[in-house]
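Because showing beats explaining, we let one protein speak, sequence and backbone structure tokens together, and leave readers to judge.
___
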Amino acid sequence: MSGAHGMVAQLAKFAGALRSHGIRIGLGDEVDAGLALARVDLIDRDEVHRALLIAFKVPRDAWATFDRLFDEYWAGDIAPEPPVAPQAAFRDHRGPAQWQWDGQRVRITIADGQQEVGDDEQPGYSAEPLLRQKPFDELSTAELSAMERLVARLALRLATRRRRRLVPTRGRGVVDLRRSFREALGTEGELLWLARRTQALEEPRLVLLYDTSGSMDAYTRVLLTFALALRRVIKRVEIFTFNTALTRVTRVVAPARMAQTLERLAAAVPDWSGGTRIGSCLAQFVEGYSSAMVNRHTTVVIVSDGLDLGDTTLLTRSMEALRSRAGRIVWLNPLMGDARYRPTAAGMSAALPYVDHFAPAHNLESLEGLLRVVK
């Protein structure tokens, strides 16, 4: 096996063998190992051995296993077959296995009720892909807790996106030759270090308007948790709730205590889980807050099913005023998770002509669409 691709393939096989013998190796460790091999003399067996031992962070009590596998994989010998997991033999005579969800992972239990796979040291199936697609209104209590963690991660992704524009950095990045040579002028032409550039972090400017009427009850907890998570990681976020009245809750929320904050909001916001007057509430926002909070750099995100009991003429005027100030208006409607949904309700129809992006908000996968549309 020769060339860079052959080396990478061999490294991946070696890492797999280490894992099959109980040594914990992550993908990041494999990347570190590849970078380490690029900096050592590959002909020098001892250098390669030391580089991989350090990059894989092999614990001392596993050094003997590492040495044996290293000899087998890097000295030209035929690689051994991974050992048969003892759990497989154990399962054969204990009856059928069953899948169980514990709020974070799907785990296997055998027929007599004893847990066969469940420790963090043992393999398990992560249900995150399934949870990303599951509608918020179908989540169990345990799944809600897991979803809140996933939503917090999504908020962090939104807060740490990178711009195309490159800025100077002292860490890893693209080599900036022009700046490197300019800095070398101060050392009589000696290139003592290479200047680098990386993509700048892009922090969005957001105004979030959340419908907390009764028709949104099934989605309110997760969607407001997302707002609180955004508040934790992004400075320029304003949060409002509305139903029959508008309430600014930006300074009320405590992102570190989401459960308590949601309870406090339910008690403090007038007519929580009541009716909806979207036009009247948006008019309050336009008159009282838009001049200070909304400009061409702002994305206004309205989360509502669009079921308005109020005056649609007032809704149209409010949306028109917002459209004239905001950089972008995004409307997230949980009802769009149903393929049969059509935006025929009077309030939704009145608002749509002024919306830049109309999308569902019924599960985590739909919320991830914000990464593409938020400025």
Notes: The chain has four domains: 3-74, 85-126, 165-200, 205-373. Residues 214 and 280 are 17 Å apart (CA to CA). DSSP finds 16 helices and 13 strands in the chain.
